[in-house]
Structures are given as structure tokens and as C-alpha cells.
What we know:
The structure is a homodimer. By secondary structure, chain A is an alpha/beta fold. Chain A has helices at 14-26, 86-93, 96-107, 120-124, 139-142, 168-180, 182-189; strands at 3-8, 30-35, 52-54, 60-62, 65-66, 79-82, 111-115, 131-132, 147-148, 153-156, 159-162. In chain A, the strands form 3 sheets. In chain A, strands 5-2-1-6-7-11-10 form a 7-stranded mixed β-sheet, with helices on both faces. The two termini of chain A are 25 Å apart. The relative contact order of chain A is 0.17. The A-B interface holds A 13-15, 18-19, 21-23, 25-26, 31, 52, 55-62, 135-137, 152, 163-167, 169-170, 189, 191-195, 197-199 and B 13-15, 18-19, 21-23, 25-26, 31, 52, 55-62, 116, 135-137, 152, 163-167, 169-170, 189, 191-195, 197-199. Strand 4 of chain A pairs antiparallel with strand 4 (60-62) of chain B.
Amino acid sequence: MPSALILIADGTEEMEFTITYDTLVRAGVSCTSAFVSAADAAPHNKKSPPPYAIGSRGMKILTDQHFTPHVSTPEEYDLFVIPGGAKGAETIASHPRVQYLVRVYLQEKKFVGMICAGSMAAKTSGLPKQPLTSHPSVKSELENDFEYSEEPVVVSGKLVTSRGPGTAFPFALTLVELLCGKEKRAEVAGPMVFPPGTFA
Amino acid sequence: MPSALILIADGTEEMEFTITYDTLVRAGVSCTSAFVSAADAAPHNKKSPPPYAIGSRGMKILTDQHFTPHVSTPEEYDLFVIPGGAKGAETIASHPRVQYLVRVYLQEKKFVGMICAGSMAAKTSGLPKQPLTSHPSVKSELENDFEYSEEPVVVSGKLVTSRGPGTAFPFALTLVELLCGKEKRAEVAGPMVFPPGTFA
């Protein structure tokens, strides 16, 4: 069974997180959410239960675990996902261990997904110039360093980027297709009842 | 500011819940989530903090309050929402107080939204025959009692119904339009970056 580590922080866009997590679970992918603390947060007690994240629109999501370096390696997961939401993406993209893992996942030929402002992690991780998209609000910070695209989903080798909540379904379904194949994508999309002509 | 009460239970489809809640918050609607216990659950201590709901795909969402009859009336909210997810919708649609409130909200000319298997609440509440849609999996239980449609979103007076996670964005945006107007819908949809041609 493929597995995915999906990061989350205070300020993460809850639709982007939820659509990715839920759609991957529907495809049989084992999903784990990991809470990334802001650098200035008080150090957590690693024995304490994982906290809840307060999303960009106030929803509270209980996370599966703390983001700790030793449980987040590409030996354990096939996919590493960074959702958007300006404040959450800033916390995640500025975390040195996240930046390190983005590079290591790609080196190990595992998938890395970034959506919305989450695509800022491509820049903070120092990835080489390649096709990429993001939320329009951070386009100006990325267009000089990447081959900026306005497609809903951009696949560049193992790096998959997308734009916002409105592209979260095609983003998640593309990840399903890459991890589990085209047939599984169709099998998952059917019961979700998309309006005719969308995300086909 | 318009306000919405969004029900949630164990087994609620987390994308339908999250997309509705988040999109309404983006429109400036004050959203409250209320946890509906299964009939056979141990009675909760009303002074205890609201519980988390375990969604249909395992996500844990902290709710804003318990569903208690005296805080859920149409004097307090402009919109009453019942999301899907087979098990969650069953818990919610079979709750006598939910059924009563569905009728009272509509009598008081307040909006009621139902999506996916949540549309079963139209039947359990004894609503009169009218246009309606639902997840295809419960169509056979509804098509004799309603004018069944396969449109992504069906508006019948103050009753708004929809089909599944794949129609949750047009469902939420329709609720925004009905509560806040066409301009607000466009203002909210823009930054969500839908692929061209979808949900326009």
C-alpha cells in the first residue's frame, strides 16, 4: 500500500489539506498528517498527544503526529505533501528539516506535492529551475526561479504542484494516478460525482 | 453577518463538511459546527468540551459545540447544513430533533442545505415532493418521494441539495450566492483558482 505524509500547520488551508488526505485514502493510500510548529512556538513535549491545527478559516483538525525528523523519511513514505494557506505554508516552507526532506524525497525518486502557497517550499528548498505552478498570490516570488505555468496541475519529474482550493481535486487525483495508476484514479473519481466535464 | 449551523457526526464526509464550512467563512458567513451523537451513544456531559468527529476517511475534526436543541433554532442561524458520508448522514438524518429543525427552518424561510447522503434528511423529515438531488447511492430511496434530478445543485425554494464531494464547491458557492449575493460568490470563487470553465 502506498503511503503519504501530509504536513499541516496553524494556518494551513483546510480544503487543500482535507481534499488531498481524503482522496488519497479513497485510493487506498495510507495517509499520516504531521503537525509542523512555527519556529517561535514553545518546544512541544514529544510524549504529548499530537495537537490540533487551526486552519486558515478556523477549522480545527486533529493531527496524527508531530512533525519529527526521524519519522518523516522517504524510506517510510512514497509521497510528501505541502498544502497551502499563506500562514501555514510559511511555517512549513521555512522549516529547515522540511527543506531538507523535499530535496531528499526527490533524490530518492519519491513524489513531492505542493499546492497553493505550499509551492514556496520549492524555492526555500533550493530546487533547480523547472516547471511549477502556485497560487497566483505568490507567482511573483517564484516566476524568476522556475518555469512558471498557470496550468491547474504541473508534473515535473517527481514534483507535482498546483494552484489553490479550486485545483485541489485535480491535484489529489493526479497524485492518485501517479501512485496507483489511471484505473484507480477513475475508480476513485466516479463516486465523488464531479459535474460532467470537470476533472475528467 | 449571515450565520450557518453545519452538522457533523462520526462518519461525515470530511471534504463535504470542510468545503462548505471554509467557503462560507470566506464569504463572511459565521459558521458553527455541531456534533450530532448517534442515538446509541452514551449521553454526553453538556459541560464537557465539544468532541471531535471522525470523518468517513479517518480525519479527526474538532467541532465547535454539541448539537443541542436549544442552540440550533432558525432565530440564530440563516442556514442549516447536513453533509453526507453514509454513516454520518444516517446518524444526522435519523435524529428526531434534526428532522424537526429541517421543517422549522424551511417554515421560517431560512435555508437548508443537504449534500450527498445528507439528502436522506429530506425524506426522514417528511418534506413534501419537490425537486432534489443526492449521491447516486441513495437515489433509489428518494426518487419515488421527490422530483429526482441529476443536476450538481438543485435549489427548491429554500431547500438546496447536491450530490457528493465533486459537487461540494458548486453547492457551497450556491449557498454563498443565496445568502450573500452573486457578487460575493464571484469575489469568493476568484482566489480559489478553479480551472477555467469549472463552476463559473
